[in-house]
Amino acid sequence: MSQPKYKRVADEITQRINDGVYAPKTILPDQKSLAKEFGVSRLTVKKALDGLERAGLIYKQSGLGTVVLGTIPIKSEQDAVADCFTGLQKQLGKENVTSKIIKFNVQFPDEELQKYLDIKANEPVYEIIRLRVYKGQPYVLEHTFMPIKLIPNLSEKILEDSIYTYIHKKLKLKFGGAYRKIKAVKADKYDIEYLEAKKDDPLLELEQIVWLNNGQTFEYSRSRNRYDTRNYVVLDTNNF
Amino acid sequence: MSQPKYKRVADEITQRINDGVYAPKTILPDQKSLAKEFGVSRLTVKKALDGLERAGLIYKQSGLGTVVLGTIPIKSEQDAVADCFTGLQKQLGKENVTSKIIKFNVQFPDEELQKYLDIKANEPVYEIIRLRVYKGQPYVLEHTFMPIKLIPNLSEKILEDSIYTYIHKKLKLKFGGAYRKIKAVKADKYDIEYLEAKKDDPLLELEQIVWLNNGQTFEYSRSRNRYDTRNYVVLDTNNF
DNA sequence: CAGTGGTCTAGACCACCAC
DNA sequence: TGGTGGTCTAGACCACTGC
Question: Is the pTM of this model over 0.85?
């Protein structure tokens, strides 16, 4: 009811690919047939397939048809998708993830942070350092800044659970987008202490700016993990 | 003539944003007006805006309008976009990039490579190691494998110029998509020798599988750069 | 309430591919 | 030459926003 038709069509086709009804390297039924089968217009089928193509499940070619792509051989469990946000709890299972609060305070932003969060010097921000623990192992060390005016009443209790759940469910704010930068960095004393990294180990850092659907920036953060525990992946599908 | 209308509309709107005609944080004219102005249907305008939204220039909200987003404060010149392929020459300027061939030979693939490239043990592959040099500085060390049957007649001359130009222009093959994995790694002897990395410096590695528009895999590669010279970025726009 | 963007349709023409 | 997906239109209804 609430889901748009193209989404339901996409989900059904995804299901069939996963079930092997549409096998890898074979050609899908053409858009007109699918439209007829699902009782929708061809444009709606096309929209569904556009999404699946961006997600890397299929490849469309004019004049030929739509091909089911196979599974990707370098894909591993350590991979985190870089261009599609999912909280750690959702990604790895709520029961596998705990959080340890290392720092939680309030301060005025320095010049850099004012620029990053697009706020004035007199608008206070939270500074949060959290260690995310996965199945008992230190996993990601997060250093986060958020403007207080956008995210009121944050508490340690919320930080121990999920910030994003609080923002979405309680504050009813909607996520708009994020700019993420992935870099390799040297371990500092925090990484060595909390992530149990060795002195000369490389670390993978994700620096990001996140904004709400109204365009207001609500987070600047840097997250680090050990080089041997987590990678980031992206899918490049040549479509506009 | 050859460009679709939605692309021309998107380009024109992009131009206006860059020129400041549509300033950051202001609301764009509504889709109906734009459709009228450009002499196209509203759906065509929407398609153009969808693309600009995925590219991070604007944000649309039903019931409100379309907002122009500002420039991103953490964006820097070291950033390479991770989910949209552009060759190094195109990205940094043909005149700034040269290539040094370190290894170029032919071999049978081992089991892992057979899996990665989806080929049999008796189908030979090229092994290519190239150092890409940017403005005289060692920049990226590429280790590439390609099946010979897909990319015939490769030569050192082509490698010194651009493999992708050869594939596109001469072989008339079209790029389909890529799965990319970004990780932090320790420097090995090649990195120290060619990238002039220090012994304990971290390196950023991009491991990727690339396929053609017919679904055939034509490249498996690992590219490394020094941690202080290049980062990867992605844009997460919450849209299907 | 009026105005916005989101979705959806039926029908049309085109470029491209394989035969 | 027939079939594929890509593009485009005009018109319609919906959910959501702000007033």
Answer: yes
